Structures are given as structure tokens and as C-alpha cells.
Amino acid sequence: LDADNYETDPCLKEIRRAENYSWMDIVTIHKDKLPNYEEKIKTFYEEHLHLDDEIRYILEGSGYFDVRDKDDKWIRISMEKGDMITLPAGIYHRFTLDENNYVKAMRLFVGEPVWTAYNRPADDFPARKQYMKFLAEEAY
């Protein structure tokens, strides 16, 4: 994706239309830009899940999403300018900055945003059960 021209990028516009991403905002994660920076960084790095998909598009900077695979092992996903990721509802994950300590990201949602993170263990939520069912089906 063209992060330098995200406001007019036809590819982003098409993704938003196709996936019904009707809401978006932009967050900058840097000690000089994010209120309660130290607390937020710790919160982002706590292993958690959401009941909705988490969609992030990196406009500037870089960082890492860590996700659990089907064997409960960590997979680190390096994210940099122009990258977009969709983490499905129910997947355990965490986020951290890299050595640059800076990222500017677009957050996208279907409908109104829901920011609630449920720290592990959160296995009883329907979103987690549905995600685990999906993993089991993919294994066969």
C-alpha cells in the first residue's frame, strides 16, 4: 500500500469498501506523542485478545506483532511502512516497537471501534472458541 498517499490511495479505498471498514483513526506511538506512553507500551505488550478483528496499517515507523500459532508458540511479524495486518478475533497477540521506538498506524474497524483487550487467559470467550475451531479445521 502507498503509505505516503493513504488519503487518496485507491487500493486502500478498495480494501475499506470490500471489508466494510467504515471507521478509522490514526495513532502515533512515541514517547513525545502518546499520552501515558510507558503505561500504554506495557499494555500493548501484555498477551491479549479482542472480540473483533484488529486491523492495523503502518503509515510510518515500524514494530512487531507477536501472535500464537496453533501449537501456542510465538510468531513475530515485523511491520513497517506500507504494511497492513488483520489479526482475527480471538487470536492471542501483543505489540511492541522496535529499536526506532516510533510507529504511526491507521486503526480500522467494521462499525464502531471496540478497544477492549482481554488478557490471557481468556479462553471462554466465543471469539476465542471460534478462532480455535478455525485452527482445528485448517489442520485437516
Task: Chart the SSEs and their pairings.
Blueprint: H1 10-19, E1 23-29, H2 37-45, E2 48-49, E3 54-68, E4 74-80, E5 84-87, E6 93-97, E7 103-109, E8 118-119, H3 126-138
Antiparallel strand pairs: 1-7, 2-8, 3-4, 3-5, 3-6, 3-7
Task: Using brief descriptors, characterize the structure shown.
single chain, 140 residues, alpha+beta, Jelly Rolls, 6-stranded antiparallel beta sheet, oxidoreductase, nickel, ARD_euk, dioxygenase
**CATH topology group:** Jelly Rolls
Helix count, per DSSP?
A: 3
CATH homologous superfamily annotation: Jelly Rolls
Shape: globular
Mean pLDDT: 96
CATH domain class name: Mainly Beta
Secondary structure: number of strands: 8
Cα(first) to Cα(last) distance is 33 Å
Low-confidence stretches: none
Q: How much β-strand is present in the residues?
A: 35-45%
The percent of residues in helical segments reads 10-25%
* CATH architecture descriptor text: Sandwich
Q: How many distinct folded domains?
A: 1
Radius of gyration: 15 Å
Order of helices and strands: HEHEEEEEEEH
GO molecular function: acireductone dioxygenase [iron(II)-requiring] activity; metal ion binding
Membrane topology: Peripheral membrane protein
Catalytic activity: 1,2-dihydroxy-5-(methylsulfanyl)pent-1-en-3-one + O2 = 4-methylsulfanyl-2-oxobutanoate + formate + 2 H(+)
GO cellular component, one term: plasma membrane
